[in-house]
Amino acid sequence: MSDDVSLAEDTVKQVLREYGYVNAKVTIPHDLTIDELVDAVMDNREYLPSMVTVNKADLIDKSYLPTVKEELRERDLDPDDVLFISAEKELGLDGLRERLWEELGLIRIYMDKPGRGVDYEEPLVLFEGDTVGDACTKIGGEFDERFKFARVSGTSAKHDDQQVGKGHELADEDVLRIVARK
Length: 182
Known about the structure:
The protein is α/β, with parallel strands linked by helices. It contains six helices and seven strands. It has a five-stranded mixed beta sheet with strand order 4-3-7-5-6. Strands 1-2 form a two-stranded parallel sheet.
C-alpha cells in the first residue's frame, strides 16, 4: 500500500477480513474513505462523476467572491472546478453544456440522409467509443439486419466518405451515411 492512502493498513485488513478476504493483494489507486472501501468490496455501488454549478453568479458582488470561494473550499469543493452561471441572463451556459457533454462522454453524429443531405440540427447522440453498429441499433428499424456498409467523414475517418463496417468507432461530430440492402 502506498503512503498517500489515508486509511491505515490495519483498517483495510480488518474491513477485508470482515468480508471474507483473508489473503489478497489490494491495490488502492487513490485516496479513499472507509465507506468507499466497503462499497468496493461489496461491489454494490457505482460512483458517477458529478459537477457543481453555482447559479445566479451575476448577482455575486466582486468583493464577495473570495467569501464564496472560501465557502466552497469548506465544503471540499475546488472553486476552479465549480461552474458559475446565470440561467436568467444566459451566462456560462455554453460552458455548462460543453462540460456536461464531456463529463457524460457523449458524442454527436450527424446523419447524412439520402436526398436530404446532412442533418446538423438533430444529431444522433452516442457515447464515446460507440461504433457504427451501435448507431444502427440506436436508430432502430431494420438498419441492423439490412446493413451493407457505411460512409463516414470526420475525425474518425482516414478520408472523407471512408467506407466502413459496423465495427468502426465513431468520433464527435462525424458525418455518417448508412447504406442498407433493400
